[in-house]
Here is the input.
Amino acid sequence: MELWRAGDDVVAAIPALTEALVDSDVEVQVGAAELLGRCGGKAAAAVPTLIGILADRHAHGFVRMTVIMTLGEIGPAATSAAPALIDTLGDSSMCTDAVRALVAIGDTAMPALVRALRHGQPTIRLGAAYVLGSLGDASVVASLVEILEDPDEGVRRAAAEALVSIRNRLTK
Here is the structure.
């Protein structure tokens, strides 16, 4: 299907693609999510449905993984998905894609990421620190410095690496 090459005409298909996200067939769900991702920010109306699928722990793993990638492709228009994406940082099978999606969403995800530095689960704190370092915004330095005292060694290391990344971006 060449839908993603249709330009502005693709906007008309977004409601149908959003409905297809909850089809009983996993392949239809995945295909719909992939096509929505190719629509980029124009697919912002599908974000609430995508968040619902991501939050559904009973949804097929491949569908959830595709939804994560789709949210990243939607980019800043998917800011409301940041908390749900942050929750997936604790799942080793989805963490890498969640990091990529949060980086693609960009600075608009920073408030949720800073809150995640205080999450009870170390892997979520670690992932949040990594994303904040990738975003490279100096406004989060104080929050990262705070978690240099985290009880988890991995979190401390991620905070230190994030601080180095921010410094490097600022000195370029």
In short: The domain at 1-83 is CATH 1.25.10.10 (Leucine-rich Repeat Variant). The first helix runs from residue 14 to 20. The two ends are 43 Å apart (CA to CA).
